[in-house]
């Protein structure tokens, strides 16, 4: 745990990360930042965590707080409902943070994100 914290400190305290944060707060609409913060902070880390802990206790298995998905362009175009279903099932279990990796275009995954207004999405293109 100590090594993880030290690694995070060195990674996120670099000057360029401050520039990214500064740029984000200067160029992203306040409402969007607030919505992301509420989805990550409250839905995921508070209400979602409570639901996850209850399910873990009653079902006897671990549930992650974040799901990482490598998007498949072909599947996304041909069957976007498959991704929608995964996210919906996750939300039912209390998972509200999603990391999406996609080699395609942002506009391809926007409809999916717009359907799930209570979740926080971290996207890497």
Description:
The chain is an alpha/beta fold. The protein has helices at 2-12, 15-27, 30-59, 73-78, 80-93, 106-115, and strands at residues 66-70, 97-101, 120-124. A 3-stranded parallel β-sheet has the order 1-2-3. The protein is globular, with a radius of gyration of 16 Å. 12% of the residues are buried.
- Along the chain, the helix and strand elements come as HHHEHHEHE
Tally of helical segments: 6
Q: How far is the first residue's CA from the last residue's CA?
A: 30 Å
SS class: alpha/beta
For the secondary structure, the number of strands is 3
Shape: globular
Strand content: 5-15%
Strand order of the largest sheet: 1-2-3
Average pLDDT confidence is 86
Profile the largest sheet. Answer: 3 strands, parallel
Helix coverage percent:
55-70%
Determine Rg (CA atoms, Å): 16 Å
Catalogue the unreliable spans. none
Describe the SSE topology.
Elements: H1 2-12, H2 15-27, H3 30-59, E1 66-70, H4 73-78, H5 80-93, E2 97-101, H6 106-115, E3 120-124
């Amino acid at each position: 745990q100590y090594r993880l914290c030290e690694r995070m400190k060195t990674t996120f305290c670099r000057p360029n990360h401050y520039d990214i944060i500064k740029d984000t707060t200067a160029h992203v609409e306040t409402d969007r930042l607030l919505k992301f913060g509420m989805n990550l902070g409250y839905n995921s880390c508070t209400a979602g965590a409570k639901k996850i802990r209850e399910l873990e206790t009653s079902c006897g298995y671990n549930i992650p707080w974040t799901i990482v998905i490598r998007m498949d362009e072909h599947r996304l175009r041909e069957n976007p409902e498959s991704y929608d279903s995964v996210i919906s099932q996750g939300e039912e279990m209390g998972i509200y943070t999603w990391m999406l990796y996609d080699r395609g275009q942002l506009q391809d995954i926007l409809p999916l994100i717009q359907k799930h207004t209570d979740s926080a999405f971290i996207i890497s293109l």
